[in-house]
UniProtKB/TrEMBL annotation, chains A, B:
PANTHER family to which the protein is assigned, alphabetical: HEAT-INDUCIBLE TRANSCRIPTION REPRESSOR HRCA (PTHR34824)
Keyword entries, A-Z: Repressor, Stress response, Transcription, Transcription regulation
Protein name: Heat-inducible transcription repressor HrcA
Protein family (similarity comment): Belongs to the HrcA family.
Protein's UniProt keywords contain Cytoplasm: no
InterPro entries per record: DeoR_HTH (IPR001034), GAF-like_dom_sf (IPR029016), HrcA (IPR002571), HrcA_C (IPR021153), WH-like_DNA-bd_sf (IPR036388), WH_DNA-bd_sf (IPR036390), WHTH_transcript_rep_HrcA_IDD (IPR023120)
Domain named Heat-inducible transcription repressor HrcA C-terminal: residues: 104-321
Gene3D superfamilies tied to this protein: 3.30.450.40, Heat-inducible transcription repressor hrca homolog, domain 3, Winged helix-like DNA-binding domain superfamily/Winged helix DNA-binding domain
Functional summary from the UniProt entry: Negative regulator of class I heat shock genes (grpE-dnaK-dnaJ and groELS operons). Prevents heat-shock induction of these operons.
Organism encoding this protein: Dactylosporangium maewongense
DNA sequence: GACTGGCACTCACAAAGTGGGAGTGCCAGT
DNA sequence: ACTGGCACTCCCACTTTGTGAGTGCCAGTC
C-alpha cells in the first residue's frame, strides 16, 4: 500500500505535534493546528492506514496516536524539513568555542555547548590519535636507562609514556634516535605508522638497535594499538526533564549505559565521514538504550574524521533541530582543529 | 534537656532501621527488631522527646518517625560504630587498583571502585598539581622560537604548554635553561615555586634573560595559578536506585550540580589533611544538594594531601559504611601514589 | 519516678465506584 | 473521495470508603 501525499503529511503533523506536546494527538486537534484541508473524519481514516502500516499506534483504545520508532524513522528520512540554525544559535556557537585555550578545553566547551543547544545529553569523543597525524616526537631522558616518549598530534593532543631501556644510553644516541623517529614519522597518520616503525628498527645500526627495539614496542603498543579513546559527556540533567514520561520511568539503565565508555565509543565513534547518523529507539543494539535516540556525526579538520560527537535523548526528540545543531557544531569544531 | 543513654539508643535504632528499610519506623517495630528492654509505649515517650529536640520527625500524623538532618548529624558524630571493611571488600580494593597503568587509570579505577563499593555517586579529584612536587621539567624545542614545556609531577601527572619566545634561541641555551630550571625546582612543591621562579629570572645572564622571562610567565600562569583541576565521576546511575523516594522526586538539580566541576571541587577539594568530612543535607551550601549527603576525604602519599575524593548520596545513606570505605580507598590510593 | 497496658484518635493509603470527555470506527449521504 | 453524525470505548480524575499502623495520653503498677 503506497502512502499518498496527504497521509505522509498527516504523519509529519503527528510527529511534530507529539514532539512538541508530549501528548497523544487526536484527529480533531490535528486539523485545527495544521491546515490540512480535510475533516477530522478523513484524517481518522488516514490514521487507521498509518497505524496498519506500523508508523503510529494508540497507547490505548480511545486515545490519540503516537508515532512508533518506524514512524520517526520515516519522518527523519523523508519528511523532516531542514531547520536552519537561528543567528542567535550561530553566534552562541562561535562565542562559546572561540575562547578555548587547548584541546581539552575545546572538547569540554563543545560538549557543554551541544548539551545546552539541544537540551539533550551530549557526547564528544576526543580526537582519536589513530586517525590524526603526528606533529612531533620527543624523547626525554629521565635517567641513563629511562626515557619519556612524548608525542604531539596535529590536533594538539599530547601523549606520553615512560620507557625502560635494556641498558644505559648516551645523550648523543638519544639525539640520534629522536632525529630518526621524527624524520620517519612526522606528518604521517598514526594509523599508518606500524610498518614505518618496523622499518626504523631494521634500519638501525647495532648500537641503536636495542633501545630502538624497545621504543618501537612502546610506540606500537601504547600509541597505536591501545589507542586510548576518551569521551566527554554533558547534560545528563536533561534526562530528568520531561517528568518521567520519557524512558518509561527509569533513568537507571540510561545512566548506566552512559557510564560505559565502551558503549559510547561504539555509538559515537563509529561514524562515517561527514555522515550524520540517526539511531532511533529499537534500532539501537544496546538493550538499555531502546527507549532512546541518538544523533551522531563525525568531525575533524577538512574531510578527515578524527572523532565523533552527538546527542542522546528520548525517541520523542526534535530530530531536525538536533541534526542541524550537531552538524553545525561538528563543522565548527572541525574548522577549529584545522587551524589549531 | 539531656538525652539519656536509652534515648540515644532509640535514635540510633531509628537511623539504622530507616536507612535499611527506607520506611518510617514505628515504636512497635523498633522494640521488636532491636532488643531495647522496654515497651513500645516507653519508646513512644522517648520519641516524643527526640522529636521535640529536632532529631526526628513524622512525615505525617500517625506515621512512624524519620531522622532529620540533625538526627543524622548526631548519629554520625556520636552514635555510629565503626564498620570495618569485610575482607572481601579489602580484596576488591586491591584487585581493582593493582592493575592500573598510569595516573589517569588510577583515578578512573578509583572512582569506579568507590561507586561500586558504596553504591553511591563517587567523585575523585585528580591529584592537584599545586600540592604535588616536581619530578622533572623538560624543554622541547619545536622550532627556533617555540618551545614546549613539559612538567612531570611526583604523582605521575604530566602537563605541557607551548611557549613562543621573543627571538630565536640556540640549542645550547635551551640546554642551559633546562639545567637551571631543574636544578632550582625539582623536588619542590609546585605551590612553593613562585619565588624560586622569580629568582631564576634574576639570576639569568643577559643572553638568557628574555627567554627565561617568558618562560617564567608561563610557568607561573599556567602551571601554578591556573592549576587546572580535574574531576572524575562515576555511579550516577546509583542516584536512580531507590525509586524516586530519595531526593524528593527529581534528580534534575542533583545531576545539574554534578556537572558543575566548580561545585564538585568545592565539595571534594576542600579537605583538611587526613580528615573525613561529612556534610549532611541542609549543611550543604549548595542549594541543589540540600537533599543529599557527602562523605569526603583527602588523599595523597604519606601525610601530604594532593586531592580529595568521596561519595555523594541521599541523606538516608549508610554513613558508617561509606565513611569506612572512602577512608580505606583513599588510604590505599595514597600509598599507591607514594610508590609510583 | 519510671515504666507499662489500654484505649481513643488520626490519617495515609489502597480499593472500589462514578462521571465526563476525548477519541475512535463506521456508515450513509453528498 | 470526502464528510457529518452517532454509538461506543475506555482512560483518567475524582470521590468514597475501610483498614491498619502508629500515635498521645492516662491510669495503674513496680
Amino acid at each position: 500500500m503506497a502512502l499518498d501525499e496527504r497521509k505522509l503529511e498527516v504523519l509529519r503533523a503527528i510527529v511534530e505535534d507529539y514532539v512538541a506536546t508530549q501528548e497523544p494527538v487526536g484527529s480533531k486537534a490535528l486539523v485545527e493546528r495544521h491546515n490540512l484541508r480535510v475533516s477530522p473524519a478523513t484524517v481518522r481514516n488516514d490514521m487507521a492506514v498509518l497505524e496498519e502500516e506500523g508508523y503510529i499506534r494508540q497507547p490505548h483504545t480511545s486515545a490519540g496516536r503516537v508515532p512508533t520508532d518506524a514512524g520517526y524513522r520515516l519522518f527523519v528520512d523523508k519528511l523532516s524539513r531542514v531547520k536552519p540554525l537561528s543567528p542567535a544559535e550561530r553566534r552562541a556557537i562561535e562565542r562559546f568555542l572561540i575562547g578555548a585555550v587547548d584541546l581539552d578545553d575545546v572538547v569540554h566547551r563543545t560538549v557543554r555547548l551541544l548539551a545546552q543547544l539541544t537540551r539533550q545529553v551530549a557526547v564528544v569523543q576526543y580526537p582519536s590519535l589513530s586517525r590524526a597525524s603526528v606533529r612531533h616526537f620527543e624523547l626525554v631522558p629521565l635517567s641513563t636507562t629511562r626515557l619519556m616518549v612524548v608525542m604531539i598530534a596535529e590536533t594538539g593532543r599530547v601523549e606520553q609514556r615512560m620507557v625502560d631501556l635494556p641498558g644505559p644510553i648516551l645523550a648523543d644516541d638519544v639525539t640520534e634516535l629522536r632525529r630518526r623517529i621524527n624524520e620517519k614519522l612526522v606528518g604521517k597518520r598514526l594509523v599508518d605508522t606500524p610498518p614505518l616503525v618496523q622499518a626504523l628498527v631494521e634500519e638501525s645500526g647495532p648500537s641503536l638497535r636495542p633501545p630502538m627495539t624497545v621504543l618501537s614496542t612502546v610506540l606500537l603498543e601504547t600509541l597505536v594499538e591501545r589507542t586510548e579513546e576518551r569521551i566527554a559527556l554533558a547534560g545528563t540533567a536533561n534526562l530528568a526533564r520531561g517528568g518521567l514520561l520519557d524512558f518509561q520511568g527509569s533513568l537507571r539503565p540510561i545512566l548506566e549505559a552512559l557510564e560505559e565508555e565502551v558503549i559510547l565509543l561504539k555509538l559515537f565513534g563509529e561514524v562515517e565521514p561527514s555522515m550524520t547518523r540517526v539511531r532511533i529507539g529499537d534500532e539501537n543494539e544496546i538493550e538499555d538504550l531502546r527507549s532512546a535516540s541518538i544523533v551522531a556525526t563525525g568531525y575533524g579538520p577538512g574531510s578527515i574524521v578524527v572523532g565523533g560527537m552527538g546527542v542522546l535523548g528520548p525517541t520523542r526528540m526534535d530530530y531536525p533541530g538536533n541534526i542541524a545543531t550537531v552538524r553545525a557544531v561538528a563543522r565548527y569544531v572541525g574548522d577549529l582543529l584545522g587551524q589549531g
